[in-house]
Design a protein that fits this description.
Helix content: 25-40%
Order of helices and strands: HEEEEHEEHH
Structural class: alpha+beta
Radius of gyration: 14 Å
Distance between the termini: 25 Å
Largest sheet: 6 strands, antiparallel
Oligomer: single chain
Length: 128
């Protein structure tokens, strides 16, 4: 299974998540109850001659943790077209371990859920 497909499947496995393309074809936006927690898209600056597509994953992140992750992983950069303080972009080039990507997805999802009304949080947490 390709990395973009594995990431897509993991994102979609989150309770109440859905995907749409409000920014145009090629940019998948993942939301929980209408609130964005991730985007997944092919690298914007790749060479047109390249046969391989590197996927970029934007995730919400605690500002302090965002900086630490950028120091640890070369493939984690400030959020592309996002608030650089609260979002990271993970370049899915194989250098960030799968478990770490899943942990970052989990954190992004939970950060968004924590901003919802208590009744919505409770309904979502029942499914985790």
């Amino acid at each position: 299974m390709s990395i973009d497909r594995a990431v897509h499947d993991y994102l979609m496995a989150k309770p109440f998540s859905d995907v749409s393309q409000p920014f145009g074809e090629g940019v998948d936006v993942y939301k929980v109850k209408g609130k964005m927690f991730a985007t997944l898209s092919p690298e914007k600056m790749r060479s047109t001659q390249s046969q391989n597509t590197t996927w970029w994953l934007n995730l919400k992140c605690d500002p302090h943790e965002a900086l630490m992750l950028r120091d640890i992983f070369d493939a984690v950069i400030p959020g592309y077209h996002m608030n650089k303080q609260h979002w990271n972009t993970i370049i899915l080039d194989g250098t960030v371990p799968k478990g770490e990507i899943e942990r970052m997805i989990d954190n992004s999802y939970l950060l968004v859920v924590k901003k919802m009304r208590k009744s919505e949080q409770d309904a979502i947490m029942l499914h985790l």
